[in-house]
Design brief:
- With 513 residues, the chain is of the alpha+beta class.
- The protein has three domains: 2-148, DNA methylase specificity domains (Adenine-n6-DNA-methyltransferase TaqI, Chain A, domain 2); 150-209 and 422-471, Helix Hairpins (Orthogonal Bundle), CATH 1.10.287; 212-220 and 261-420, Adenine-n6-DNA-methyltransferase TaqI, Chain A, domain 2 (Alpha-Beta Complex).
- The protein is built from 13 helices and 23 strands.
- The strands form seven sheets. The protein has a five-stranded mixed sheet, with no helix packed on it. The chain has a four-stranded antiparallel sheet with strand order 3-11-8-9.
- α5 (150-193) runs antiparallel to α12.
- The longest helix has 44 residues, at 150-193.
- The two termini are 60 Å apart.
- The mean pLDDT is 93.
Length: 513
C-alpha cells in the first residue's frame, strides 16, 4: 500500500483509494489499421502527446476502439511521462499510455483532476521500467489518500479555482513580460546591426570616418599583412623542423589568400557586407570525433554550448594526445557553434570562448570561427551571430536529415555579416554590454516568478487535499457515508452487469421432438 497522507485525517474525512471513488479504465492500443484522421469512430488519445492545458487535442480517430473513456473522465498519462492529466472532451478511445478515471457518487471531475495533479510528482517517482518509466493498474489501485465529505469537496474546488484564477492572471502577465523582453532584445540587436544604435555617433564623427571603399581597402591591406606574417612564421617553423632532423609533424603552410569582395546589402554609409569566410584568420573547420579514453587530451562535449556562456567544464578525455589535438585546441576569442540540432531554432547557435586556464579541443559536432580581429572583433561577431541578422540565414540554409537540422561549412562561409569600423564595433559592443545584461536579469527574474507561481500552485493543492484550504463543517455528511454509498452503487452495477452477461450466455432450449 502506498499512502499519500502525511498526517492524521481531518474530521469527516476517510482514507480510500481510486477504486473507492471512481471507475478506472486502463488503456489498450487498438490495431493501427483502425486509426484514421477522417473522423471515423471515436477520438483516439494515445498518451501525453495530445495533452494541452485541460483538454487534449483531437488529431486521430479509431474505428474499432478497445478501451473507452466517457466524456468528462479524467485522463492520466501512465507511461513516460507519468502523471500529467487532462479531461476527456467527449467519449473517446484510449491507448495504453493512458488511464481513465470516471468519478462516482457525485464527485466532480474538477475535484478528481485537482487531486491527481496534487500527487503528480509522487506518481512520477513511482514509475518503473528500463526503456521508459511507467505505472500499472496495481500500483494505482494500491494508492491511498484522504477524501473529504462531498460538500467539502465542492468548497475545496471553488476555493482552488478562485486562487488559481488570480494566480493565472499573474502567470499570464509574467509570460507576456517574458515575450516582450525577447522582442526588445531582438529589436535592440536589429538596431545595432543596422547602424541605428550608433547613428548619432556617425553623424558626430562624419569628418573622421572612412568611406566604405576606404574601409574595404584597409581590410585588404591588413589581410595581406597578416597573411605575410603567417607565411614568415611558417617558413621559420619549417627551418626549425628541418634543423631538428624533421622530427614530428611538418608545419602546415597557410592556405593562399582568397580574393575578398563586398556583397550587396542594405547597410549604412561607411559599412560593408562581407561573407563570413572573408572575415577569418584561418578557414572554417569542423572539430574531430574521438573516442573516450582515461588520461587522454580533453575535448568539449556539445552540451558546452547549452548555457548562456560556453561551459568549458563540459568535456571528456579523448583517445588522442596533445600533438594529435593541436589543430583543434580552442583559444580565447574563438567562436564555436553547433553544426546540428533537432530544433531548427537551435542549430548554429554559437558561443565565444572566454579567457581560459586549461587546454581543450573542440569536437566534430562543432565548427570553429577564428575572426580576423584586425577588422572584426570577436565580441561583435558573437553578438551579430545570435541576432536575427545571422539567425535568419542559418534557418534558411539548414537542411534536415533523420530529424536533425544541419548547416555545413559552405553555408557558414557564405553567411553575410555587416562590418563597420573597429571604433564603431567597439561602441556597439559597449552599448550592448550595458543593455543586454539588464534584459537578461529581467528575464531571469521573470523565470523565477514563473517558478514561484508553480510552487504556489502546488502549495495550494497540497493544502487543499490535506484539509487546510477550507474549514471543515461538522454538519457535512461524513466521507464514510459517501464511500458506503459508492460501494453500494458499484455492487449493484456489477450485479446488473453480471446478470446481463449471464442472459447473453444462457443456452437456447433444444427441441428433441
Amino acid at each position: 500500500m502506498i499512502n499519500f497522507n502525511d498526517s492524521e485525517l481531518p474530521i469527516g474525512w476517510s482514507e480510500c483509494g481510486f477504486n473507492d471513488i471512481s471507475d478506472m479504465v486502463m488503456g489498450q492500443s487498438p490495431p493501427s489499421s483502425t486509426y484514421n484522421r477522417n473522423g471515423e469512430g471515436l477520438p483516439f488519445f494515445q498518451g501525453k502527446t495530445e495533452f494541452q492545458s485541460l483538454y487534449p487535442s483531437i488529431e486521430k480517430y479509431c474505428s474499432e476502439p478497445n478501451k473507452v473513456a466517457q466524456k468528462d473522465a479524467v485522463l492520466m498519462s501512465v507511461r513516460a511521462p507519468v502523471g500529467p492529466t487532462n479531461i476527456a472532451p467527449e467519449k473517446c478511445c484510449i491507448g495504453r499510455g493512458l488511464a481513465a478515471f470516471h468519478p462516482l457518487g457525485g464527485i466532480s471531475t474538477s475535484y478528481l483532476i485537482y487531486l491527481l495533479r496534487s500527487i503528480e510528482k509522487k506518481l512520477a517517482k513511482g514509475g518503473t521500467g528500463t526503456t521508459f518509466s511507467a505505472i500499472n493498474k496495481q500500483y494505482i489501485e494500491e494508492l491511498r489518500f484522504g477524501v473529504p465529505p462531498l460538500d467539502e469537496q465542492y468548497r475545496i474546488v471553488a476555493k482552488i479555482e478562485e486562487l488559481f484564477s488570480e494566480l493565472d492572471k499573474g502567470i499570464e502577465s509574467l509570460k507576456t513580460a517574458r515575450e516582450q523582453l525577447k522582442v526588445y532584445r531582438q529589436a535592440l540587436l536589429k538596431h545595432a546591426f543596422e547602424g541605428k544604435l550608433t547613428e548619432q555617433w556617425r553623424k558626430d564623427n562624419a569628418e573622421r570616418l572612412e568611406t566604405a571603399d576606404q574601409l574595404l581597402e584597409r581590410i585588404k591591406q591588413e589581410r595581406v599583412a597578416r597573411y605575410q606574417q603567417q607565411l614568415d612564421a611558417w617558413k621559420a617553423a619549417v627551418k626549425q623542423w628541418e634543423a631538428n632532423g624533421k622530427e614530428g609533424k611538418k608545419p602546415r603552410k597557410p592556405k593562399a589568400l582568397q580574393t575578398i569582395a563586398p556583397i550587396d546589402g542594405q547597410v549604412p554609409n561607411g559599412w560593408l557586407s562581407l561573407q563570413v569566410g572573408d572575415c577569418l584568420i584561418i578557414p572554417l573547420s569542423n572539430g574531430r570525433s574521438v573516442k573516450d579514453r582515461d588520461g587522454g587530451f580533453p575535448v568539449l562535449r556539445l552540451t558546452a554550448l547549452k548555457g548562456e556562456k560556453i561551459c568549458l567544464s563540459e568535456r571528456k578525455n579523448g583517445d588522442w594526445d596533445r600533438e594529435q589535438a593541436e589543430d583543434y585546441i580552442v583559444k580565447e576569442g574563438d567562436f564555436l557553434l553547433s553544426r546540428g540540432n533537432g530544433s531548427k531554432s537551435l542549430v548554429g547557435l554559437g558561443k565565444l570562448v572566454p579567457s581560459m586556464d586549461i587546454e581543450v579541443a573542440y569536437p566534430d559536432t562543432m565548427v570553429r570561427l577564428k575572426p580576423n580581429t584586425d577588422y572584426l572583433r570577436s565580441e561583435y561577431l558573437a553578438q551579430v551571430w545570435n541576432s536575427r541578422v545571422i539567425r535568419n540565414q542559418i534557418e534558411r540554409s539548414a537542411r534536415t536529415t533523420a530529424g536533425i537540422y544541419k548547416i555545413n561549412q559552405k553555408h557558414i562561409g557564405e553567411f553575410v555579416l555587416p562590418i563597420c569600423s573597429l571604433k564603431e564595433q567597439e561602441l556597439i559592443i559597449s552599448r550592448l554590454s550595458e543593455a543586454l545584461p539588464v534584459i537578461e536579469q529581467m528575464t531571469k527574474e521573470t523565470e523565477s516568478g514563473l517558478k514561484r507561481s508553480e510552487a504556489l500552485r502546488q502549495s495550494i493543492l497540497k493544502k487543499a487535499f490535506s484539509g487546510q484550504l477550507v474549514p471543515q463543517d461538522p454538519n457535512d455528511e461524513p466521507a464514510s457515508v459517501l464511500l458506503e454509498r459508492i460501494a453500494q452503487e458499484k455492487a449493484e452495477a456489477a450485479a446488473k452487469s453480471q446478470k446481463a452477461r449471464a442472459a447473453k450466455k444462457k443456452p437456447k432450449k433444444r427441441n428433441f421432438s
